[in-house]
Amino acid sequence: ILPTSHGRTPIPENGFVYSFYKTSLDCNLDAISENDDVSFTLNFESDNADFDLELWDSMDYIMGSTPLLLKDGTIIPDIANRTSSFYIKRHARTAVGIQGDGTWVLVVVDGKQKSSVGFTMLELAEFMKEKGCQQALNLDGGGSSTMVIHGKVVNNPSGHEWSIVKKERPISHALLVLPKEEC
Fold first, then answer.
1. From CA 176, how far away is CA 100, in angstroms rounded?
2. Which residues are within 8 A (CB) of 105 and not within 5 positions of it... i.e. 6 or more apart?
3. 0.85 cut: is pTM over it?
4. Residue 43: other Cβ atoms inside 10 A
5. pLDDT tens digits for range 63-98
6. What is the DSSP string of the chain?
7. Chain-centre distance for alpha carbon 64
8. Among residues 54, 25, 53, 30, which one has the least CA distance to residue 40?
9. CA–CA distance from 129 to each of 16, 53, 105, 114 (Å)?
10. Which entry of 2, 93, 151, 168 is 20 to 30 Å from 175 by CA?
11. What is residue 135's predicted lDDT score, i.e. its pLDDT?
12. Which residue ranges in the chain fall short of pLDDT 70?
């Protein structure tokens, strides 16, 4: 347990780093000291009729994010009705989608710059639909919206809002795409 790591905790070899909001746990974190070994159980439940627990249990890797942008080629209706700044303000955005033929679409949109103001969430959903995606998911955006191809940053990350220098920021997770021969 490292209560103040702010995403800079090294991942131990053959290990994991779990990060939770203190309020999301049903336990007293104050009783746990730094570097204590802990164990926990995650339970997944859903009222969604489409939720398949067997399929969920068979997954080796799962990526979660929000919101879902497209399902079966249709923009999720709730996106247009949301009023929070996360939805209606233009920000740098990152999304992943799958076209009808199984082709993956990876999108990074720069934001908060003269050359690119970003997308609202609805604009991102519309863009993914225009690209032929049948399914699409918004990923972490803002300063995390960075695309690297062959070791080179190919977009202009918005970086830290409080920084004079706009650059990619350290992150704890990434979506990696490897050539077939490296898989």
1. 22
2. 95, 96, 97, 98, 99, 128, 131, 132, 133, 136
3. no
4. 4
5. 778 899 999 999 999 999 999 999 999 999 999 999
6. --TT-TT-PPPPTT-------GGGSSS-GGGS-TT-------------TT--HHHHHH-S-----S-EEEETTEE-THHHH--SHHHHS-B-EEEEEEETTS-EEEEEE--SSSS---B-HHHHHHHHHHTTEEEEEEE--GGG---EETTEE-S-----TT-SS------S-------GGG-
7. 6
8. 25
9. 36, 28, 11, 26
10. 2
11. 96
12. 1-8, 18-29, 34, 42-45, 159-167, 172, 183
Token pair of 20 as six digits = 């939770």
Number of other CB atoms surrounding residue 86 within 10 Å:
15
SS (H, E, C) 117-156: CCECHHHHHHHHHHCCEEEEEEECCHHHCCCEECCEECCC
User: At residue 110, what is the residue type?
Assistant: D
* Greatest Cα pair distance in the chain: 52
**Cα atoms in the Cβ-side hemisphere of radius 13 Å centred on 162:** 0
Q: Write down the residue that tokens 């898989």 correspond to.
A: 183
Structure token digits, residue 179: 């050539």
Strands 93-99 and 133-139, sheet pairing: antiparallel
